[in-house]
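Are you able to produce any protein sequence you like plus the matching backbone structure tokens because I've never seen that pairing?
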Amino acid sequence: MAMIQFTRNYTDRSNNFGFQFEFQCDKCRNGHLSPFIASKVGVATGILKAAGSLFGGSLSRAAYAGQHVKDALRGSAWDEAYGEAVEEAKQHFAHCSRCGHWVCPQACWNEARGLCEDCAPDLHEEAAHIQAKVAVEQAWDKARKVDQVESLDMKAPRSAAVSACPHCRARVSGGKFCSECGKPLAAAKVHCSECGVEMKPQARFCSECGTPQRR
């Protein structure tokens, strides 16, 4: 028996009414969908099921028997359909004699070398890829030689940036007032009404004298 090809790179798209297979390129995974091959037994069984649901009786029994016949013939029918699909699909792929892969001729086959591009890369494509990669590396090197923070004075005192409004909790990126509620971003200082010590804005009691605070 002859060796069966495409035993690794295909997907079975068959259903109860027929057979169809999707074959993929071993390199880029682009694919080819084989023509749908109708199953005569499957179609006949489907028709009998539809008729049986309307009329019942002998038609329902015939559909049930047809299902068993279809199951019995599924193996040989599938094998035959798969063989036809393989022969048709081979016309859309190139076979690399070095690695055994089946690849699409449009993108993954080196026609000049008679091999797939994994085994014999296209030198013009490789050169373009290398040039682009080196250009990126050179851009990194050039950027490192330039002071990117020349205008930043690290000696100047800085306060922590406000990330959320203390009133409505909306996210902010700077400024003196919240863009959502319009209130000042810097929380007003709060002092104890009894002893005058500075307190946290949301404190209910003075940490010094214990006096309840009215809001």
